[in-house]
Amino acid sequence: MNKSVEIKNLDLEFGAVKVLQNLNLDIGKGEFLVLLGSSGCGKSTLLNCIAGLLDVTAGQIHINDKNVTWAEPSERGIGMVFQSYALYPQMNVEGNLSFGLKNAKLPKDEIAKRIKRASEILQIEPLLKRKPAALSGGQRQRVAIGRALVRDVDVFLFDEPLSNLDAKLRADLRVEIKRLHQNLGNTMVYVTHDQIEAMTLADRIAIMRGGQIMQLDSPEEIYGRPVNKYVAGFIGSPSMNFLEGRIEGDVFLVGDLAIPLAGYEFASGNAVSGEASLGIRPEHVVTGELVGNAPFQIDIDVSLIEPTGSDTLVDCEVAGHPFRVRMDGQAKIKVGERLRLGLDLSKASLFDKTSELRL
User: Fold this and answer.
1) Residue 54, class by beta-carbon neighbours within 10 Å (0-12 exposed, 13-18 middle, 19+ buried)?
2) Structural domains present in the chain
3) One GO cellular component from the entry (predicted)?
4) What is the C-alpha to C-alpha distance for residues 48 and 358, in angstroms, rounded to an integer?
């Protein structure tokens, strides 16, 4: 892989608190990498270390084969977009875009050229003479992205840039950021706690927890083959169902149920036994006419229904465990109704009870 950003054995400590621990990460040229995790996992801290806004305790950071571990942010060849727009209120859009370039003493014609290019890409040409107070939230965030864009750098860093916007604007700007990456081909590192953003934008996702990377892979691989129970439960909306039980021979025992495992592959290549968790996503549970094709079927009582438009989420219990099913939005279903489910075990995951690693 042709590397754009290389992080080696990175540690960051605030007093006695270890925020990042022996972290290693390679980001390819032109890659869109998303740092994903819950609050406090270290994703924004890692981004700030790459940007040079935080001094690391140990380790090295290389950008385009240059060691920038102790370099100033302005010397790293990065453009950063923050969660808050941080626009200068007294300047119009054009002034906000040109401010950093003027400080860098670029020629006027070069500044004009860069502003024209950025405003065309982000479709903010009609806004250039307006001040931030006259812009909507989405327009302000476009200007903030434009301010990074005019710097003409190889690496763009985004720190939860859409979290202050409403759902519709988030979806619209998500599409624009993806299109921006396709058009520019620059390396982009994007921090979010929103898994929909991560899944739709990323070439690869780094899922973080406790200052460490749990899994680094494509969205498809993380969704389909999570390395541990934490990743499995974190990715997916609604989240994965877990049944706690025991593997004995070629069956998984949970309560009075014996779920067949014969024919399914274990990561080690050898069958295992002992306490484990069986995880299956709500969308991998089949109902209606498709149930007859499922290798394992069970009857449940519907306890709650959540219509979402395109889908209907059905809550129930399986062997005493809360269980959720995603059905078609047009499904005619009532609370208290008895329903037959089929489990698509080819898409299920087994996790060791103690280590929580994928079996």
Assistant:
1) middle
2) 3-230 (3.40.50.300), 231-352 (2.40.50.140)
3) ATP-binding cassette (ABC) transporter complex, substrate-binding subunit-containing
4) 32
